Amino acid sequence: MPRAYRRLDSAFVAGVASGVAGYFRVSVWVVRAILLLSCAWKFSGGVAYGLLWLFLAVSPDERSGKGKRGAAAWGAVGLWVLSAAALVGVAFIVRWYDTSVIGTYALEIAVATIGVGLVWRMRDVRGAWWLRLIGVISGVMLAWVSIAMVTASEVSSRVWSADLAVNAIVVSALLMGATLVMCVVCGAAWVVHPERAEEREAALVAATKADMAAHLHDSVLQTLAVIQKQADDTAVVARLARAQEKELRTYLYGEALDEESFKAAMREVADELEATYPIRVELVSVGDHELTPALEALVAAAREASVNAAKHSGAEQVDVYTEVSGSSAQVFVRDRGKGFSPEEIGEDRMGIRRSIIGRMNRHGGRASIRSTPDEGTEIELTMPYGKDAGDE
Amino acid sequence: MSDQTSEEAPGEVTTYKVVIVDDHAMLRTGVRSEITPAVDVVGEGEDVATGVAAILDKHPDVVLLDVHLPGGGGAEVIRQAGTDTRYLALSVSDAAEDVIGIIRAGARGYVTKSISGPDLIDAITRVAEGDAVFSPRLAGFVLDAFSGSIEVEKVDEDLDRLSAREQEVLRLIARGYSYREVARELFISIKTVETHVSAVLRKLQLSNRHQLTRWATDRKLV
Fold first, then answer.
1. Is the dihedral of CA A217, A227, A345, A342 positive or negative?
2. What is the pLDDT of residues A141-150, one digit of tens each?
3. Residue A6: inside a domain, yes or no?
4. A350 and A216 co-located in one domain
5. Domains and CATH numbers, chain B
6. Number of domains in chain A
7. Domain range spanning residue A111?
8. ipTM for this prediction
9. Cβ pair A321:B114 closer than 8 A
10. Which residues in chain A are contacts of B175 at CB distance < 8 A?
11. Which residue in B175, B218, B219 has the most chain A C-beta atoms within 10 A of its own C-beta, making it the best mutation to test that interface?
12. Is the pLDDT at B155 greater than 50, yes or no?
């Protein structure tokens, strides 16, 4: 079931009713009627509407596409006025039979609600900035007028003290407090901003996807490349395929390396590399730490760097040095191979650009590459790791 | 093989005399063929007893010593044959306790058996001349050992701490840099690099950190 969205194209006020109706597959008029009628009991319909307004995002296709709303703008204003009038009407009914504070000030509450609604609405509207500013200002004015009305009626109905100065102070304090509350409420729509949360989520999904792509590149594609080169050696192909299958299974369904340490993971990388490529891996590790997501990314980047050395450098040995100290971990991957000049890393060198640099950056680390043609390459990876990994 | 050249004339290119002590005959043959033109292999041993006998008989400049030997290991050879001879530990074992153990017993260096022929000749020369030879792995162990994770029983400021420069040198060696590359990287002479490494070796052997070897066991290193 997809989530509910506010639908602006069929909106009277802010599209909450249409969104809810679409979600439950009922007529929008049923929802509107329920909301309006339940306002008769202490404005509960209005409160519900306000909360839904805050936490429902505008539907994604309306967020990206524009135009339609501009054409219907004047119609929308009419619908808005109609809704406001309906709310005021309900307020009159409430005032008539409800004797509580809410009933007494039903009209003022309705006016304040309309004001706040106007301010919130301006966030969705894509008009000129000054039009939206006018909307915000008039919304604030409306809300403030209701506050002033409540205060005036309180002042006229009771006297707190014989001293006029004390009364003046109390009144201004009330006004200031009410104004503050009003500002907070008006600003809420900008602070909560459910669309932004949704975009963050989307970015996270994209990052996970990029990680996944990088992983598949590191493992499956590399193995396939090696298999193609050694296609005539069936024993080697079988071994590679088996190893890759095991690795991929662990990645997709397994508990992976999480319970292990950084050092153990690097050891595993070195063993795997020596099994896959005709290269010696000299691994030296100083210090250790439980694997965190950041450290796992570091291991993956270091693995890719070593694979690059194994595949492209032509060297017989790669030196891998890892050091965990304080709050960051470092890995140096060095070969005495043929080297390259870093400017030559084209877009096609997915390995370096995405699997190493991109991956390190995504997790808050950095990678630097030092390479001299004919002398070799050294890749330095530095990754701060979180202390929040649940140890101690 | 066993013909002993007498003292070389000064100024001549020195051919050092070497004894190989290792329990694998194949490895002894392999090493011998790799280093033979450059150094003079004067004897072999296959366990502690034959190793000690060969050393005392041939008086080599350098002993290539396997860490693991039947009869007590390389450290036992050093204990029995004495530290007048210079030892270079040669091992496939990467257990820190073994490596640190043999260095503390008196070896002047440690290299892995996967070392290339020219590099091994280089290391033998260096040890023969009284310098220390650190493989990347040994440098890593030493950095770990001196990083403060060991309790110090009796604090000797000079012996229980590596200077910043010594740490820098070790870190580069751990990254796979040769002495020459370390020197170039730090803008110092090779001689200075050798001085730093020898200082570290001395600290490793003389430090009051009696737990240095226990450290390795505690950490369950590889």
1. positive
2. 888 888 888 8
3. no
4. no
5. 1-130 (3.40.50.2300), 135-222 (1.10.10.10)
6. 3
7. 16-192
8. 0.75
9. no
10. 284, 319, 321, 332, 334, 378
11. B175
12. no
